[in-house]
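Why show two proteins at once? Because comparison is the fastest way to build intuition. When a single record is shown, students tend to memorize it. When two are placed side by side, the eye starts asking what differs. So, the first record is below.
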Amino acid sequence: VKAFLDLQQKAAEVMAAVTIWETELNDIEMGFKKVNEKEKLFVKKKNTGPLYK
């Protein structure tokens, strides 16, 4: 019974850690999306001139 309770406690700790990691990864992913959107806008504005002069 003690071994089962120990395993149950460890499983709960792992599940809590995974939840925290998922939240952090979602925040990081949103940050990358914002950076990518800004880069796309920058590239579009930069390359608006004629290709040959």
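Second record. Ask yourself what differs from the first in the token line.
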Amino acid sequence: MSTTPTIVPIENTSLTGFYKDMTVPEKRTFWACATGWALDGMDFMIYPLVIGTIIKLWNVDAGTAGLAGTVTLLASAVGGWGTGYIADRIGRVRTLQFTILWFSFFSLLCAFAQDFNQLLICRALLGLGFGGEWAAGAVLMGETIRAQYRGRAVGSVQSGWAIGWGLAVLAQAALFSLLPAEDAWRWMFAIGALPALLVLYLRAYVKEPEVAARTRAKIAAAGDRPSILEIFHGPILKVTVLAS
């Protein structure tokens, strides 16, 4: 009997070195979700950067103007909840594509708002896609990236928010220095439609996780589709509350 000790490979435990060990599908999913979250952050930060201009041009008070930011966040919570259900029905990648197109479209509509009420409605609808994008992307990463890399990958994707914030600041600095304020704020929102281009990458390179496809097929065969309210019942309720 051989007495040679068995050598067990050690997984890459460095903070960033894990990336080189990921497979091509994992890397594609990582970059798709990271880019989506960064652009999500950019779209969200556009309004706080132009709120001063909105107050002056439309003569609204600060409290009323701030309402648009609050409504966007509240809508994002609803969007995340609803999108999770949709992702279980039509797939993670298709849902991610839909949410990106959704918030890009309503960001573009914000550029054409003629009064604060129109802008408020557009921002609320944008929020649905904003929250849904992260929900779909997080599930997609969880089912594509291996468990030993998942925490670091999700954490790295979260840092994309700061990148998006920085892009919004750079856009504001450029546009408000080149254009009059009454035009610059509209172009800020128009730029917020650029994330729609990410859908082309998703369609070409990011595939649906096999585990998600198998689960949907199993549910369809059993004819037992879960309710959208199921996360608020039984043992799942505790997880829902703590995770929220």
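One difference worth noting in the second protein: Residues 96 and 140 are 9 Å apart (CA to CA).
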